[in-house]
Amino acid sequence: MLQVLMAIWPLFALIIAGHLMRRWQFPSETFWPGAERLNYFILFPALLVASLVNAPLDNPAMPRLALGVFTALGIGWVSLLILRRVCKWPAARFGVFSQAQLRFNTYLGLAIVGNLFGAEGLGIAAVLLALMVPAVNVLSVWALSAEGGVSPRTLLLPILKNPLILGCVVGALINLSGLGLPGGSDRLLSLMAAASLPLGLLSVGAALQPQQLRSQLAPLAWNTAIRLLIMPLLAWGVALTLGLPLLETAVVVVFFAIPTATASYILTRQLGGDAPLMAGVITLQTLLSIASLPLILGLLGF
Q: How many CB atoms lie within 10 A of CB 49?
């Protein structure tokens, strides 16, 4: 557990630094939206391409990895549908609760995997992202829009325009082609990738809204407990049942143990969900994951 804590505390230090920098308006309030767009559309896709180019796509464990990911997501989704029927949640709240349990902070996940498991872990994580990002985006949009009706265009267009998906597709195609990254382009992508995660973690901190923790304490508490404790145990149980290798199991558990994505707030606001509740969930999950991540990963032997 101590080894895990030593590996991840610098990542949370960057998150806290980002929050303090924005609170103190350094370098300026207008800096953060531009920084987040730069990372989301340019630097982070470059990281995914660089990671997928050398990812072990022919690894015999990959089909089981895909099955494990979709099984865990499926169990979580069906459980949410049952709870929605029992509790009679409107779409505005159901969309928040769905994103709170199924989405994940990609920047933090890749940073943790990179620190703990190196380049091999990042390659597996990039494959996992190619599987999970489209699935959780479809489920999130459906959950927020279900009462108003959804169309294939509403569900699929955000995925087709998602730069993370495009980065995964480009990286996988280069990998399968066997061409590699010629002419120094591998070094260019490495430089861009190196800038992506620190900037992403600072942006995560800048997006936190502690003022939203003052109300709706019950839904904040149980959403956080399920995401940070129950979901990683579920993922671990599914991986164990399927016989996934240790490294693949560890990567899956990390992505089910990290807090939900800060981008969930933007999607919730755009589609008419309960944006203040979503902001509170993101903030509480992120803050408490500082303690829960070392605990979960340490207890499970990673």
A: 26
* Residue 188: CATH number of its domain: 1.20.1530.20
Residue 96 has what pLDDT?
Answer: 95
3-state helix, strand, coil in the chain (%, to 5): 80, 0, 20
Could you tell me where the beta strands, DSSP code E, fall in the chain? none
Mean residue pLDDT across the chain: 90
**Rounded distance between C-alpha atoms, residue 74 and residue 263, angstroms:** 22
Cα–Cα distance measured from residue 265 to residue 280, given in angstroms and rounded to the nearest whole number: 9
Let me know how long the chain is: 302
CB-side neighbour CA atoms (13 Å) of 134: 17
pTM here is 0.90
- How many structural domains is the chain composed of? 1
Domain hosting 79: range is 2-299
> What average pLDDT does the segment 282-287 reach?
95
Q: Are 292 and 112 in contact (CB under 8 A)?
A: no
**At a CB cut-off of 8 Å and minimum separation 6, what does 295 contact?**
1
Find the range with the poorest average confidence among 29-33, 164-168, 252-256.
164-168
Amino acid 149 reads G
Please give the Cα distance from 280 to 241 (Å, whole number). 34
CB–CB of 248/61 below 8 Å? yes
R_g of the chain, CA atoms, integer Å: 18
pLDDT band at 151 (very low <50, low <70, confident <90, very high): low
Q: Which amino acid is at 129?
A: L
By the 8 A CB rule, do 264 and 282 touch? yes
Tens digits of residue pLDDT in 183-230: 888 899 999 999 999 999 999 999 999 988 887 888 999 999 999 999
| Contact assessment for residue 196 and residue 203, using Cβ atoms and an 8 Å cutoff | no
